[in-house]
Sequence to fold (844 residues):
Amino acid sequence: PETFYLKDYTPFGYVVERVELVFRLSPEATRVLSKIRFAPNPDVSDREFFLHGEKLKLISAQIDGAEVAPNVTDTGLSCEVPDTPFTWEAEVEINPKANTALEGLYMSNGMYCTQCEAEGFRKITYYPDRPDVMSTFNVRIEGDEKVMLSNGNPGESGEGFAEWHDPWPKPAYLFALVAGDLLNHPDRFTTRSGKDVELNIWVRPGDEGKCAFGMEALKKSMTWDEEVYGREYDLDVFNIVAVDDFNMGAMENKGLNIFNSSCVLASPETSTDANFERIEAIIAHEYFHNWTGNRITCRDWFQLCLKEGLTVYRDAQFTADMRSAPVKRIEDVIELRARQFPEDNGPLAHPVRPEAFQEINNFYTATVYEKGAEVIGMLKRLVGDEAYYKALDLYFNRHDGQACTIEDWIKVFEDSTGRDLAQFKNWYSQAGTPRLSVDESFEDGTYTLTFRQKTPPTPGQDHKDPKVIPIAVGLLTPTGDEVLPTTVLEMTEAEQSFSFEGFKTRPIPSILRDFSAPVILTRDSSAKERAFLLAHDTDPFTRWEAGRELAKASRIAMVIDGASPDSNYLEALQSLVRDDHLDPAFRALVLAPPTESEIAQALADQGVTPDPDAIHDAAETFAQTLAQSLSDSLPRLFAATLVDGAYVPDAKGAGLRALNGRILGLLTRIDGGEAATKQFETANNMTVQNSALACLLKAEKGDAQSQAFFEQWQDDRLVMDKWFGLQVATARPERAPAIAQSLTEHPLFTIKNPNRFRAVMGALAMNHAGFHQADGSGYRLLADQLIALDPLNPQTTARMCSAFQTWKRYDAGRQDKIRAELKRIKATEGLSRDTNEMVSRILD
Ligand code: B3K
Ligand code: ZN
Fold:
């Protein structure tokens, strides 16, 4: 397969001045008529007229009205064209119903919908399908569907047709079309300059009761972007559509966002607090793309983090403002460590701005998104808030309507702050998680911190330069007073010291506050000091982190030396959990144990081969010991987490219910499932129903409740995804592969729906000890399923391959088994480019 390189970028030889499309809808034979005005691009001397096109049946092609016979291949067509502006017209036929890849125009439950990012528009018609080619679009949809939508503002419509005009030039990846039997949840929004905007959430009949929360989230996002970034909406309508079959979360098509129904539909009875928070964040994310992505887009797909890193950063700011900033920060760090760190430390490691790809869909990664957002957070911390917003204003003013690069982005900060950011760019070009170690000394009242940074080699990048690392630190006295409030140290060298003067006693450092850089910090410190920080640190992140470090150290000692759970840590947890003055959400986060995969990585980093079963046993022992040590207070603590009255999906209620779930997990270990059974029976919202069922399943006492849950919810697709996932997630390791296997044979399982597939297979991959069963049954099942899915849906298959990315951590026996499965996948005849690239990189 061909590899594409960042260094090979050249602009397209033609400018697109106007696009007119007509769709004649038919499930198996949709006709797409295109009329495109091209002009030679004066900046390009060597012009080649090549239009992308895949899986298209070309019916006819004309230039300026005269039939032409282009040279057509599997990937597109080329043609002789005039040296002057000309009009290209083509008619193609496509088959939406046969499109199981869910890219291009496809059907989901009888409804037409599209997904074009990154390169799906070429499956709709012949076009220069690259983000730096921008044009206005006029679209006419012909068909007998009740609702027919496209981008931009509505034009004429009538019996059997609807027209749409998008006045804002856009790349083809932002094109969208939806048609079907849909109902809308309408609302309106007035922008701060007084523009009246019609808002709609479009759903299948039956789902209209699940739109209100998403609509509120949309309006909050619109207000927030005006207030914080000064950005207003720019069309007369904003449409959101919920689709059941969707490869990812959602898509920011101009004026017509398309959402995986799991990321927009919400009701208290069917959605958990985590669902509500995620829905609010994704609605915001897609809306924010209107400026960071749509008005200013990417020159090429190597620049993906330009829109994704920035938009993730913006949606995180939004969530922090709407809910709790410390809770959001801790949740994001947990996520980053669970998803991005393993990527950055394994065979799939790539820079935030990759330099080569075979299939761009494989680069919508935690590194591009989440590390991309961390990089922006560091930039903001280095230049300060005021300079950050000033730079953003310059970015919007200077680049509106353009397709940009990371160089443009950095230049905006350089020009507006006068700083030289050359070294900072290493964050975009060099992969791998920096290891930061620190030593301290105290002499004559001067306290000195000496940091060392080192980034391990990653595939194709042996040498790493020092990065600019903003290290936020604070200093505390042994009685818990803050003697140095949070200060950002700017580390630029491989080794660097920072001194603080005028102390009578040796201060206690709180380092990497608010997780000010995406690094792995190692510091030898005593359990006593960590317990002190867990009790007294004034920064919520480092306070939580101290607990996490204690948890990890204790868990590792249990696995390596057969130690008992650390009593200092147990005591610290007991007093925290009983401290009613502390935010329940924070207490829930402190009670959340490190994941087993995280412990496996920590062991591997120390040169110890992780044993998934031993790690699992240690986790169980620890939880059991904690439950027993708290046994007297658990019923009282549990009662204090019960929320009376109607369910409200806000941060306060969610925090209390998160703590409820944690305490119930402990209580179920000692009360035989009594409290969980009662909670299941009386639940008036999905959050507590779900957590009760999870506790009972984990205790293997949930068969009746699982059956009742199934009967109650079998007609609700999204709740059934939970039912499928929970059984695998809570399974004892030795049973997990067999349970997952039997669920793939359940009548409601379908490999064609990505949500359902991920519910089962994603849960298996997340059940660490279950997936890594020594007999290889977990690996085999996943490989079987990936081989079955690949011909239908390469994107989802390829994405799920990352479950194998950590394989080199494990023992030779497991490695052999994983290697064999990866090779079996790779040897599959007709394997997609997507999956082939992933498997090859993982094997390398
Ligand atoms: N931009 C889309 C992701 C498209 C993924 C293509 N494989 C959603 C988002 O990041 O908002
Ligand atoms: Zn995005």
About this structure: The chain is about 40% helix and 20% strand. Residues 540-561 form the longest helix (22 residues). The chain has a mean pLDDT of 98.
